[in-house]
Amino acid sequence: MTERETFGGAYIPEMLWETLQQLIAAFEKAKRDPEFQKEFRDLLKNFSGRPTPLIFAERATKKLGGAKIYLKNEGANHTGAHKITHCLGQGLLAKKLGKKMLIAETGAGQHGVATATVAAKLGLECVVFMGNEDIRRQRPNVFLMERLGAKVIPVEYGSKTLKDAVNEALKFWMENLEKAHYCIGSVLGPKPYPEMNRYFQSIIGREIRSELQEREGKLPDVVVACVGGGSNAIGSFYDFVPESSVRLIGVEAGGIGKKVGQHASRKIAGVLGIFQGYKSLFLQTDDGQIAPTHSISAGLDYPGLGPELADLYQEGRLELTYALDTEAVAAVDFFAKLEGVISALESAHALAHVIKIAPKMKKDHIIVATLSGRGDKDLFNFARAFKDKSFRDFLKDEYNRYD
Ligand SMILES: *Cc1c(COP(=O)(O)O)cnc(C)c1O
User: Fold this and answer.
1) What is the distance between the terminal CA atoms of the chain, rounded to a whole angstrom?
2) From the CB of 270, is ligand 1 less than 6 Å away?
3) d(Cα 330, Cα 60) in Å, to the nearest integer?
4) Fewer beta carbons under 10 A from the terminal one: N or C of the chain?
5) Ligand 1: distance of its center to the CA of 83 in Å?
6) 192 φ, ψ to 5°?
7) Do 56 and 101 reside in the same domain of the chain?
8) What is the structure's pLDDT at 371?
9) Least confident window among 3-7, 209-213, 285-289
10) Pocket mutation for ligand 1, best pick of 231, 266, 342, 377 (most atoms within 8 Å of C-beta)
């Protein structure tokens, strides 16, 4: 790009305009409403379990022999990842707007589970759109959503994956604008979603700052987070944007190679485009269609970069890099054995980068890596990645126990 681009915006059908204006107004009001703030803080503390711990990774630090490593453990949240935070925020706003239902679309099902959890907690109906192909691959999450009382609606057309689920969810929303709030799962979509979800998630960075102040009496030198759409990353970074001494590094999915369809890195191949109502960098075909992506981690397997992150990247404030599938799996193993932390595959991309840079940094420097989620949800993927034969036998036995 030669000229400075403004990312974001609201590229939406006119029918949605009024609804989005109402959401913007409710969000602006909520920011100044002590009652909303109190309810949100109460849910974060007494439902999700915040503040999440900042773990000093002492043995990993010793082993790598460089910077001091801290892990911000968002995996300690209820439901196992940071996603619950912006779902709670949106759920509360939806109630203020008098909505009775949350709509979500989900690929891997993680956002679906977080939305269904919040809907159950707040007494809202929940409808989740999911491609048929994803339903087949992510059966455990479908099961959980249904237990939480959500209706999971299969999308049978197109590639039967996330982008088709988005289309279907939008269609359903336009038919139910009065009743339903569309709960978007990252710092994506039209205004005000990117700013709104960042606002909710920025508690991560504020906690990092105060926890580290208490432990070390200073700012981190580097903050690292994985980037799918970008919510855990911008949540971790936002408080440090004005602190020019703090390097901000986002780690994308390098997948298995640099060709189209082998990765999900906008640094490698992102091109300016418009999709899902916002302008940003997307992985695209030459015709401007959304390109296929690949990552071992479902949460990073997404073509677009949150517009506020695209801004920071364009300004040079944010560095982007990537980690390969194999590096992420190795990082899970490394931190499991040294720190007793089994990371989600998404977060393991950030950890893989820590393994690369920590040894080159001074011993009095501090890296904070955000552990966006815990690894329980990746059990089946891990078993396959580590080629664990006895796990396969277990699955067979389990199958035979069914009647
Ligand atoms: C969904 C997810 C991500 C990716 O989403 P962001 O919006 O980029 O944070 C990362 N980690 C985990 C554990 C997730 O569930």
Assistant:
1) 59
2) no
3) 13
4) C
5) 7
6) -95, 15
7) no
8) 98
9) 3-7
10) 231
Choosing from 180, 196, 212, the residue where a domain stops is 196
Q: Would residue 400 count as lying in a domain?
A: no
Please indicate, yes or no, whether residues 174 and 234 belong to a single structural domain of this protein: no
Is the entire prediction scored with pTM above 0.90? yes
Q: In DSSP terms, which residues pair with 370 in a beta bridge?
A: 72
Q: Is residue 347 part of a domain?
A: yes
Residue having the nearest C-alpha atom to atom 7 of ligand 1: 231
- Among 78, 300, 372, the mutation site with the greatest number of ligand 1 atoms within 8 A of its Cβ is 372
| Gap between the Cα atoms of 34 and 134, Å rounded | 40
What pLDDT score was predicted for residue 259? 95
C-alpha 299 to ligand 1 mean position (Å): 5
The answer, yes or no, to whether any atom of ligand 1 lies below 6 A from the CB of 304, is no
Q: From ligand 1's centre to the CA of 232, what distance in Å? A: 6
For residue 237, is pLDDT > 80?
Answer: yes
Same domain, 162 and 207: no
> What's the pLDDT score for residue 326?
97
- Residue 176 half-sphere exposure toward CB, CA atoms < 13 A: 19
pLDDT surpassing 80 at residue 5: no
Q: Is 377 in the pocket of ligand 1 (CB under 6 A)?
A: no
Provide the percentage of residues in the chain whose pLDDT is more than 70: 99
> Measured on CA atoms in the order 298, 303, 309, 315, is the torsion positive or negative?
positive
* pLDDT at position 166: 87
Helix (H) or strand (E) run with residue 285 in it: none
Contact 230 CB / ligand 1 (< 6 Å): yes
Residue range of the domain that includes 246: 49-80+202-385
115 lines ligand 1 (CB under 6 A): no
Residues designated catalytic:
83, 105, 372
Classify residue 4: in a domain, yes or no: no
**Contact predicate 20/12, CB 8 Å:** yes
Residue 394 lies in a domain: no
Residues 183 and 230 grouped into a single domain: no
CA 372 to ligand 1 center in whole angstroms: 6
Among 196, 220, 250, the domain boundary falls at 196
CB 76 within 8 A of CB 101: no
Measured from the Cα of 110, ligand 1's closest atom is 15
Mean pLDDT over residues 233-261, rounded?
97
Report pLDDT digits (tens) over 63-75: 999 999 999 999 9
Residues 191 and 216 in one domain: no
Considering its fold, how many domains does the chain have in total?
A: 2
Same domain, 184 and 302: no
Tens digit of pLDDT for each residue in 324-378?
A: 999 999 999 999 999 999 999 999 999 999 999 999 999 999 999 999 999 998 8
